[in-house]
Amino acid sequence: MAVKIPEMKQKWPHKANTITIGATQEEGGTRTSTITVGGETALPFYHFEGEMPHPPVVAIEVWDIPPDDWPDPVREPFEEVSNDPGEWARKCVEEYGADLICLRLKGCDPHGANHSPEDAVQAAQRILKSVGVPLIVWGCGNDEKDNDVFPQLAEAVSGENCLLGTIKQDNYKTLTALCTAYGHKLIAESPVDINIAKQVNILALDAGFPLENIVIYPTSGALGYGIEYVYSIMERTRIGGLRGDQAMAMPILCDIGIEVWKTKEARATQEEIPEWGDASKRGSLWEATTAYVYLLAGADVLILRHPEAVQAVQTVIKKLMGGGS
Amino acid sequence: MIFIGERINGSFKDIGRAILEKEKKPVQDWAKKQKERGATYLDVNMGAASRNPDDQAWLVKTIQEAVPTPLSIDSTNIEVIKAGLAATDGRPMLINSTTAEEKKLDQLIPLAVEYNTSIMGVAMDEEGSPQNVDRRVENGARIFAAATEAGIPEEKIFLDPILMPLKFMQDQAEKVLETIQQYTMLSDPPPHISVGLSNLGSKAVDRNLINRTFLVMAIAFGLDASICDVMDEELISAVATAELILNKEIYSDSYLKAFRMKTFA
Questions:
Q1: pLDDT tens digits, residue range A152-170?
Q2: Labelling A52: which of A311, A322, B145, B174 has CA 20 to 30 A away?
Q3: Structural domains for chain A
Q4: Contact, B6 vs B43, CB < 8 A?
Q5: How many domains would you assign to chain B?
Q6: B261 to A205: CB separation less than 8 angstroms, yes or no
């Protein structure tokens, strides 16, 4: 007897927002390419249920100071260029295939090098001069200092349609106003908390910023360090958006390199823990594997560090999108 | 929640007069106001003001000039419903309503198919409004079966178990709640389930409180649509909170704002 298998495919009434980062000359910027992400009508890579019109993208992280605290396996590929954010970015794009660059303004940290807003502007401009891909600029994480740096920076890179971050529940007004004034996109950060993720978006909207110009950063954890919590939040966020919750329909960004290269698994040398094997391979594998998990959770933008992780993740994205073998 | 804004109804003096005098402004003002407050559909009901199909066509066109909101063509008169449908510009529509009477089903379901509209089925039959759960369920099921047989998908079928004024028929609201629960079991996904909410609090002093409390309870039983006063802020907030409690929405401190944002979309 023929058995009728019921149709189990899920159809969602809504879709994730689409966002474009970067602006070409015709669009008022100087980028030679732009990046568009989002627009999913189903869960990640469920090509049989809906569309994923834009593949996830990989940004490689560049600092405005030499990254002295990075462990050797991830510091060495950039050793010759780490004094110059422009050259560092060029290497990321030309040699390692970065889809975009994430400039992290680590040097502005008041408890570190305490660079001035002018220094930050210079770092961003050097990158914009040396590469044609779009730019993410991430503050040093000290709210007061970031609010001091971003006014000059956002203005200096106006027209470039950068992705700037981050805004948080208790610090969103300055950067939101700047992104409105100078036409940039925003990263909305929340501390592994879906309710706050939603709240930050509503706060930005309340401040007059369109939800369509926001990328959610739900905080990332490395593999083995709470990744499952972030995974379920990302999944629930996406499902909320697909169901029609506009405050949850944003593309999602994962900041992976910074988390992975803090872990013991990535940092320990082979001498320290011989049974863990070759340290020169281990960290980048940990980074790539973390990224795979986030791709499946719904990541649209991944920020990575190690060139081998970048290559591995880009290959997997191609495969998951139905290309390659 | 599907909100069907009730205010464009000829029983209200301003709308009744507007229909008779072909005065667009009051109609269009209420269309805009209800849309702004999140109405998913605007109910278009001439009430006692007119039974002339041309008036219904005028009313539909007048509303369409002002807002893009889907319309609920509300009449017991088939000619009036036809005139309303014929006047539309292709936006989503809801026929409001058929009953379980065969004569009505035979007329209205083909109309819903022809115009590709949703259809509201009120659980009345040849003998009038049922007073118990069983006949409400039976009538709802009959409407549901007729509509699905004609190829209308669940998401375009609305069932209304009929609310009575609490003040005069106090035993009925509870039966409506039980009926709602039974309707949710008709299919998976279930059809939409809707009530004419304002009927419940009719003539009662605390009518808004009564309506609001019932709506929250009904949502817990599976109701997902209501013809109601979308201008009632407390009603909308109560619905937002009910959906939050049922985990249909993701909590945020500004969930009331988020809910309204969603409703306005």
A1: 999 999 999 999 999 999 9
A2: A311
A3: 20-320 (3.20.20.20)
A4: yes
A5: 1
A6: yes
